[in-house]
Amino acid sequence: MTTPSTADSGQALLSQDLVRLGVSVSDRHEAITMAGRLLVDVGAVEPPYVEAMLEREEAMSSYMGEGFALPHGTDASRAHVNRAAVAFLRFAAPVEWEDGEEALVAVAVAATSDEHIGVLASLARVLSDEDAAQRLRTTDDVDEVLALLLPADDGKESS
Question: pTM score, two decimals?
Fold first, then answer.
């Protein structure tokens, strides 16, 4: 099993309890709220952070392309972050995100500084690899999500 990436607190940035696969949501706001609640449930953020994620989405879409969205809070909302964490949602059906663009995956980020950069670098690496990106868009295996997104230097060698 993959060793989760950890923040300074020693708690996982991304772990099995922050991954949901095959979820059904009606729109991007419900998706962001669901991801935010995961972050609240693990104690990574306080509830106002979820509202800030929604506010930020209204100001600027978090859609990245290739079926991926990266919702996160505003700079001011970092005051509501208890520890860095990343939540991963893969949707059962595409979610209209912005101007007809559809998301299949949302990767929600909460951080006070740069603790999450390793996971985001892994996401960028995955998105540049069409096969790996397709695996993230379609997997039903939580461990595969962790293996694809956790930085390679977290104790698991890439094969």
Answer: 0.85
Q: Give the residue numbers marked as catalytic.
A: 72
3-state secondary structure of 103: strand
Cβ atoms 85, 45 nearer than 8 A: yes
Structure token pair of residue 12: 């996982």
CATH code, domain with 82: 3.40.930.10
Q: What is the pLDDT of residues 92-103, one digit of tens each?
A: 999 999 889 999
Is residue 68 included in any domain, yes or no? Answer: yes
- The 10 Å Cβ neighbour count of residue 60 is 8
Question: In sequence order, what are the beta bridge partners of 110?
Answer: 85
Question: Is a pLDDT exceeding 90 seen at residue 2?
Answer: no
Domain count, the chain: 1
